[in-house]
């Protein structure tokens, strides 16, 4: 009798874990998180791949190779996945986020050919990267003997685009079917005075004729169009993936953002609001110890990073400017500010001091608001020990992330 009960319990536990493993394929409407490797101060690189049309809509032909884009280009084990990325969004200039830019440019040129990849760069950092480019190109093309053939030109080709908060760019050449195109929008964050940006990636899908014109014949439609009538409905816009880069909590707080003046600043605030509407939010989280509270928060802010204790204010109470809301137990007054469409919030940039991975996951489970548990994913592969790789096994998704719910189910399983 006893063994029967145990088997049922064990089976259902594995079912729970299995369910979480499979239901958490990390995608927005059009993008999947292909790989994410990050460790504070060491390296950060997140690679996204466009979903095949078969995954978006029925009956479409398969594309040969799917477009990729990347957030930051630190030197990480994701590098191979990042090589085909034709757009790279650099959040700031610290070397753990940009150290592999020129390796990427060269590898992209060697393996993919075609146009140079485009790197979006915070405007103030462009001159520094240009200087690096000159040095790297000289290095790459150096020859011991100029006379006897050999390659005299560097293979490094880069296209740096200067970005300011509030800028929007269309991601030319990337489409899903004939109706959906993509854009990037940049917003200001706060990384202890260093020029730093966060990004949102969105899609725009044309939605055809307005309802009232759908029954008309072509000749009538042509006539109406000639007379200046707008026949098409507004495109449907989705904020799909957001990336905070490195920032302290102030850099993401909506209630602290008062647009100073000018269009760009207002747009930056608007785009930062869109971060909280994204289908997938990639959010830095460097300090995980919720027991250190005040002192830890202060240290995190000084270093321009996010402390786990700030998540409550960022994601649970963002919409309120009313300080009285913080009286009494927070659970009773706070509601999650994330939109319903936010499927995943992926925490990355964990400090190596919080390792190994299971310890970091325990700290995250203890420290983040419960309302975030269901959507929480952690880019934890940088902290995995060999034993953990074995014991966590299937919980580790191919992109290097672990779902917090799957982890908790695994942790609570009968031993
Ligand atoms: Zn960093
Ligand atoms: Zn940094």
Can you offer a commentary on this structure?
With 415 residues, this protein is α/β, with parallel strands linked by helices. The chain has one domain (26-140, 153-411): Ribonuclease Z/Hydroxyacylglutathione hydrolase-like (Metallo-beta-lactamase, Chain A), CATH 3.60.15. The protein is built from 14 helices and 14 strands. An 8-stranded mixed sheet has the order 7-8-9-10-11-12-13-14. Helix 1 runs antiparallel to helix 14. The two termini are 19 Å apart. Mean pLDDT is 87; it is low at 1-24 and 318-332. The structure holds zinc ion (2 copies). Residues 40, 44, 94, 96-97, 246, 349 line the site of one zinc ion (ZN).
């Amino acid at each position: 009798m006893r063994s029967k009960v145990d088997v049922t319990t064990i089976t259902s536990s594995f079912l729970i874990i299995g369910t979480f493993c499979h239901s958490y394929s990390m995608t927005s409407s059009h993008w999947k998180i292909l790989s994410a490797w990050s460790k504070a101060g060491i390296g950060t690189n997140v690679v996204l791949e466009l979903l095949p049309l078969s995954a978006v809509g029925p009956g479409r032909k398969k594309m040969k190779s799917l477009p990729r884009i990347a957030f930051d280009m630190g030197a990480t084990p994701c590098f191979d996945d990042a090589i085909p990325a034709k757009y790279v969004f650099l959040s700031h200039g610290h070397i753990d986020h940009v150290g592999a830019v020129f390796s990427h440019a060269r590898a992209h040129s060697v393996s993919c050919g075609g146009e140079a990849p485009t790197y979006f760069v915070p405007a103030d950092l462009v001159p520094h990267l240009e200087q690096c480019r000159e040095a790297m190109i000289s290095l790459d093309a150096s020859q011991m003997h100029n006379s006897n053939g050999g390659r005299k030109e560097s293979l490094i080709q880069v296209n740096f685009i200067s970005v300011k908060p509030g800028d929007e760019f269309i991601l030319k050449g990337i489409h899903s079917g004939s109706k959906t195109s993509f854009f990037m929008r940049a917003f200001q964050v706060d990384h202890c005075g260093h020029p730093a940006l966060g990004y949102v990636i969105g899609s725009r899908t044309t939605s055809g004729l307005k309802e009232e014109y759908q029954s008309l014949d072509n000749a009538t439609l042509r006539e109406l169009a000639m007379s200046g009538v707008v026949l098409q409905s507004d495109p449907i816009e989705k904020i799909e993936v957001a990336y905070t880069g490195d920032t302290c909590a102030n850099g993401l707080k909506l209630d602290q953002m008062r647009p100073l003046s000018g269009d760009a600043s207002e747009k930056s605030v608007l785009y930062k609001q869109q971060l909280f509407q994204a289908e997938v939010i990639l959010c830095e989280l460097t300090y995980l110890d919720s027991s250190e509270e005040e002192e830890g928060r202060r240290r995190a802010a000084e270093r321009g990073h996010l402390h786990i204790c700030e998540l409550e204010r960022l994601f649970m109470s963002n919409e309120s400017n009313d300080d009285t809301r913080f009286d009494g137990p927070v659970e009773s007054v706070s509601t999650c500010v994330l939109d319903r469409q936010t499927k995943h919030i992926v925490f990355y940039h964990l400090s190596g001091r919080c390792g190994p991975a299971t310890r970091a996951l325990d700290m995250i489970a203890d420290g983040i608001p419960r309302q975030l548990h269901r959507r929480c994913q952690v880019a934890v592969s940088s902290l995995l020990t060999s034993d953990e790789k074995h014991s966590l096994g299937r919980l580790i998704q191919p992109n290097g992330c672990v779902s917090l719910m799957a982890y908790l189910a695994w942790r609570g399983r009968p031993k």
